[in-house]
Amino acid sequence: MAVDGPAAAGKTTASLRLARAFGMSYLESGRAYRVLAYEALRNNINPTDQAAMLALCAAVGGRSRAELLGLNRYTSGELRTTEVGRVVSAVAKIAELRTRVTNTLRAWAAGNRRSIVEGRDIGTVVFPSAALKFYLTASVETRAARRVAQEESGTYQEVLADVLRRDQADLTRAASPLRQAPDAILIDTTTLTVDQVVDRMSHRCRDVG
Ligand code: C5P
């Protein structure tokens, strides 16, 4: 199952609840791009230096697939800082790096057949034949307020600026831009509670069995 949409549209909260309810594995693909952004900052690598970023990706992925996917070693606190948020879009723009992350996500999914993968290009590029696709969205103000409430570092204004900048970067990049897949179910979560979002998604999950 693929769950895509802009930052803080409610993808993670809803996907985790669905995964638990339906006994599915869950993967947040943004962690891979955040791991690379975090390591670039830590190692003083310019995130727009494609060759250096590819070498970094090979080094991290060479240690283990789990490490590149951010499944071990890195805490959410380390990956969700304002600094990482500031550079992650530059990292996610690099087409060759996206191919490597995509291949790693596919390898993970081959061992986790019943799974929910969340991101920006999951239903369009990574798993175009997913059994079920959702595209979650919400107003930018609502999304920024949610991030602040989740205690992400930074003030409302800083978080709003970060969300706007990432929306713009994700929507306009040449490689796998953020798009709703034609066969994805659109849910605008602006005025919905988490329970309502999960209910809508659950009904569709039951439909596909
Ligand atoms: O989901 P999250 O906000 O953690 O993702 C961080 C960044 O990683 C996004 O802003 C986007 O630029 C990038 N990303 C992506 N493709 C994905 C998941 C995330 O480009 N499938």
UniProtKB/TrEMBL annotation:
A Pfam family assignment: Cytidylate_kin
Intracellular or extracellular location(s): Cytoplasm
Superkingdom to which the source organism belongs: Bacteria
Reaction equation(s) it catalyzes: CMP + ATP = CDP + ADP; dCMP + ATP = dCDP + ADP
Keywords associated with the record: ATP-binding, Cytoplasm, Kinase, Nucleotide-binding, Transferase
Enzyme Commission number(s): 2.7.4.25
Molecular function GO labels: kinase activity
Residues where ATP binds: 5-13
InterPro entries listed in its UniProt record: Cytidylate_kin (IPR003136), Cytidylate_kinase_dom (IPR011994), P-loop_NTPase (IPR027417)
Cytidylate kinase domain location: 2-203
EC supergroup of this enzyme: transferase
Keyword Transferase annotated: yes
The family this protein is said to belong to: Belongs to the cytidylate kinase family. Type 1 subfamily.
Name under which the protein is recorded: Cytidylate kinase
